[in-house]
Amino acid sequence: MIKLANDLYYVGVKDPDLKTFDVIVPTETGTTYNAYLLRGEKTVLFETVHDDFADELLENIREICPAEDIDIIVCDHTEPDHSGALHKILDINPDVTVYGSAAALKNLSNILNRDFNKCVAKNNSELDIGGYTLKFIWAPNLHWPDSIFTFCKELGAVFTCDFLGCHYCGETVDEDISDTAGYDTELARYYKYIFGVFPAAVKNGLSLIRSLSPALVCTSHGPVLRRDIEKVCGCYDKWSEPVVQSGKISVFYVSCYGYTAAMAQALAEGARSAGCEVGVYEITAASDAEIDEALRTSAAYMFGSPTLNRDALPPVWSVLGSVSAVADRNKPALIFGSYGWSGEACANLAARAQGLGLKVDEELCRVCFKPSEEDLEKLRSKGSAFAAALLSQ
Ligand code: FEO
Hints:
Layout: E1 2-5, E2 8-10, E3 13-15, E4 20-21, E5 25-26, E6 31-33, E7 36-39, E8 43-46, H1 54-62, E9 70-74, H2 80-83, H3 86-92, E10 97-100, H4 102-112, E11 117-120, E12 126-128, E13 133-138, E14 148-152, E15 157-161, H5 180-195, H6 199-212, E16 216-219, H7 229-239, E17 245-253, H8 259-273, E18 277-282, H9 288-297, E19 298-304, H10 314-321, E20 332-339, H11 345-355, E21 359-360, E22 365-368, H12 373-391
Parallel strand pairs: 8-9, 9-10, 10-11, 15-16, 17-18, 17-19, 19-20, 20-21, 20-22
Antiparallel strand pairs: 1-2, 2-7, 3-6, 4-5, 7-8, 12-13, 13-14, 14-15
Helix pairs in contact: 5-7, 6-7, 8-12
The structure holds MU-OXO-diiron.
């Protein structure tokens, strides 16, 4: 337990051994699950923690008051790293009322699978807890539809859950951490994985936060922010700038005998001739960072694979797996590949690309074995037409 301000206490927990969050996010220093207790005439708990740490949360709360004294729990966001321990508090204190957005309360019904006292935190509504006033502010898609911020006017403290947070577990939860470079690295990584696909929502969130001029930002992971609020907001500002370059096409392919490679080059030549900037990536020779950058900054894609055992090859699936069904939605895509027998790779890739929300060109560019000069010329024309359509959008 740490006292942050008058009547405001940090009751969160550390998880330094966590190596990966949500299966895919590396967490080299682990993380923290932050929760806060505010004692007005009513006692309010902001967020809970991951279920694995429920007992530690309860111990921290009990350093301040019995869990039975909690009147209100505010769930600013319901991902189970913040709502997982809620069931244990409800076991002890079934009279507590849970505040959250309508989406959050619906989520909690499906997480808790039990009845509980609930109240919708309407946008810009205020709750007087006796001595302190809480203002609820909707912040959808930061990073779930359920997300809200809660602002305590008297303390100038805003509870943002994941927003402006960081999977960083240091020696302290304040900003006086010794490994600032490590924190900066994790802050950037956290942004990329958690908020990178919601740049417009991030801009909106930054406007909301700045309009409050908070003295304290109580995040749900990593340090509580005081001195560095504007520094972190500035990073989010920079990272949420638009990155897609209109007229930029990236061609990703693999090739066993150079046939699909020749198709890639012909399509790229055609697209360049129409005026597009085209990057061509033999996937196994490109770094993850190069592919990631190309995916994020391109306005359209081409994916090429030979067929092996009735399917596309794994490196191409891997790149498609990095396409964001949110951020990259509606980008045009063209599928191509050489084949020997039945040639299922193109259709399979097209189905996956459509599933991700890409606008897949209806014409699959397939060539049996080695493309002839006539095939290559057709591919140049196809690449040119694809690029011209992109430029005319
Ligand atoms: Fe930290 Fe979206 O949960």
